[in-house]
Amino acid sequence: MFKRSFAASKDKAGKRMHDALKEGVVTPDTSPSLGGASPKLNSAIVTIAVGKDQRLFAAHEDVLSRSPWFAEACREQFFASPGQRRISLPDEEPEVFSAVLEYLYKGDYFPRLLHDRKRNAWSLEDNEEDLTIHSTSPRLHSDKKTGGLNALAVVYQHGVGDYILRDTLIYCSALRFGLPELQRHALRKQGLQSGIDVACILRSARFAYDHTPPSDSRLRAHYLALIIRSRKTFKRSGTMQMEMEKGGSQMFFDLFVAMCNHVDELSEIGQVPPSHYTVH
């Protein structure tokens, strides 16, 4: 997981959570709750074992239960003794679950989303601290960008065996846990990222298609729009050619349909001459 600054949280609770996250565990004594209200004193503590190495997190049951998925999981633990309530998430990445848990407690996750009302523009908070990844994942080199990968923007996904855009992973986890507002946060934050290479974008797009239903009209559409908007880069990419030749994903048919719709829209406003060819 990332070492986090919580620069805007200067209260003691924010400082305690900062120290706890650096140690890799969120505990009942170090976790402020969403909206600033303290968790119920009698709220049970649940241990969550995350990832292939079963990294341990701890959280209040009433905070976890803001997620329908966790509410059901906690109900299944109802008869367990207080110190034995445990949920296992072997397929989640600790860096991603940390963001989910931070959102459940604080209403956002690092880096926070900032809104400039005067310009009606969104941005991500700045952070000048060392962004060391505290996990057993393969490490990026010491610079924040290596081979087009931004250490703030990506997480090593063990199931894929490579780096995936962090906000895509958070979006998919939020979908699984029934947190639509977190999905919106993740999608908006991903739209603010830059400097990501084609290979990472395509891996992340495939992951998105593999972990969202066909009815998803947000994350999937985000990738289609990104490829169309940056088509000059993608059409020159050998990685894009290889991925399309390999196929095996609904994404490429959706991309074809989106491109056709884009051309149709341009044709309607007279920017593209009509074709003289017909298909029988």
Write a concise keyword list for the protein shown above.
single chain, 280 residues, alpha+beta, Potassium Channel Kv1.1, Chain A, 11 helices, elongated
Concise overview:
This is BTB domain-containing protein. The protein has about 280 residues and is of the alpha+beta class. The protein is built from 11 helices and 9 strands.
Characterize the structure shown.
With 280 residues, the chain is of the alpha+beta class. It has 2 domains: 12-105, Potassium Channel Kv1.1, Chain A (2-Layer Sandwich), CATH 3.30.710; 145-268, no CATH class. The chain is built from 11 helices and 9 strands. The strands form 4 sheets. The chain has a 3-stranded mixed beta sheet. Strands 4-5 form a two-stranded antiparallel sheet. Strand 1 and strand 2 form a beta hairpin. The protein is elongated and about 70 Å long.
SSE blueprint:
Blueprint: H1 12-23, E1 45-50, E2 55-60, H2 61-64, H3 68-76, E3 86-89, H4 94-106, E4 113-116, E5 121-124, E6 145-146, E7 149-150, E8 154-157, E9 162-165, H5 166-177, H6 180-190, H7 198-210, H8 219-229, H9 231-235, H10 238-246, H11 250-268
Strands of the biggest beta sheet: in what spatial order? 2-1-3
Radius of gyration of CA atoms, rounded to a whole number: 21 Å
Number of strands: 9
Low-confidence stretches: 1-39, 128-148, 275-280
Provide mean pLDDT, rounded.
76
Molecular shape: elongated
Largest sheet: 3 strands, mixed
**Beta strand %:** 5-15%
